[in-house]
Amino acid sequence: MVSRAKIKELMNESACSHSKDKKPGEGCDKPKPGLAAGGCAFDGAQISLFPYADAVHLVHGPQTCLGASWETRETKTSYEGRDHTQMGFTTGITTNDVIFGGDKRLADSIDYIMENYRPEAIFVYSTCVTALVGDDIDATCKAGSEKHGVPVVPVHAPGFVGSKNLGSRLAGEAVLEHLIGTKEPETTTPYDINLIGDYNVTGDMWQYLPLFEKIGIRVLSSMSGDGRVGDIRTAHRARLNVIVCAKSLITLTRKMQERYGIPWISVSFYGKRDTTFAIREIVNALGDPALIERAEAVIAQAEAELEAKLAPYKALFEGKKAVLNTGGNKAWSIASGLQDLGIEVVATSVAKSTQD
Ligand code: SF4
Fold this sequence. Notes:
By secondary structure, the chain is of the alpha/beta class. Helices cover 45% and strands 13% of the residues.
C-alpha cells in the first residue's frame, strides 16, 4: 500500500527545479480538498499507464471509479494484438466486499482476465474504497503474478492521496518497482533511449519518431505512449532517459539514474524550435560525433520543409496575441508552438502544472 513516507518523498522531489529553493517539507503543493474534481490520483495513474494496450487495466473499486475516468484521453497505439484498453475492467466491489474485504474478488478477477484475455500484464489500481478497507492488493497481485507468469502490478494511487499529478508519480513508482529491470532486451545499441511521459495523445509521437529513425536514435521503451509492457521491462538498458513534457515523472528518471546510471534530459516536441532543441539535446547527450552530424543534416532538411508549409499561416497570424488556459504541460509547450507561428503569447495559466 502507499505509505505517508512515500507520498512525502514524492512531494519533495529533489530533482524538481522548484524544490531546490525550498526548505525540507516545502516541496510541491499539498493535496487540497476538492482537488480530485479535476482528476484524482487514481485518474492520473491510470492515464499515465493506459497507453499500454497490451496490458489489462483493472480498477479495484466500485464501478463508478472506472466510469468517471473512462475515455478521458485518446491515445493512439500501433499494437497489432488485441487492444485491451478498448474494454473497461473493474472488480466492481459491493457493500459486501467493504464488510468482508475485496481480496477474493480481486484474485478471481485476475484469474478471469488471464483465462479469457491473456494480456502481457495486468495493472491493478487501488481506489479510495479498497484502500480504506485495507485490501492487501500487494499480496493478491504477487500471488496472481506467480500463478499466471505475467506481471500483475499493484498501482497504489487511491484518489484521496492527492491530485492527478501525484497519481502520475505513483504510476512511475509502480513501473519502477515491478517492471523495469525484469527482462533483458534482445539487442541493444549505443543510441537506445527511453521516452518518458509522452502518451501519444492523438498520435503526436508519430510526428517526430520518423526523424529519430532517419538519425539513428532507437526508442528502446516508452512510458507509455504506444508502449509495450515487454519493452518497458528492458528500460534499464537504455543509454538515456528523455522526459517529454512531464515533470511528474522526474522522480522515476532520478531513481533510474541512481539505480542504473542512466542520465536524463527533459525536452518538448511541440513546434519547430522545441523539436530541433530536443533532437540536439538527445544526440549531444548520446555523445557520438557521427550521430550529431546526421542529426544536423536531418534538422536542416526538416526545418526547411516545415518553413515552407508554415509560411501561409505566419502571414495569417501576424500581429496576433494569445492567452492560454490549458492544463498540465500544454501551458508551456503549446506556447512554443504558437510562437513558431509568430503569435505573441501574453499570458498562460498553470492549472495542473508545477509553477516551474
Ligand atoms: S479513486 Fe476515489 S476520488 Fe478517484 S474516482 Fe474513485 S472514489 Fe473518486
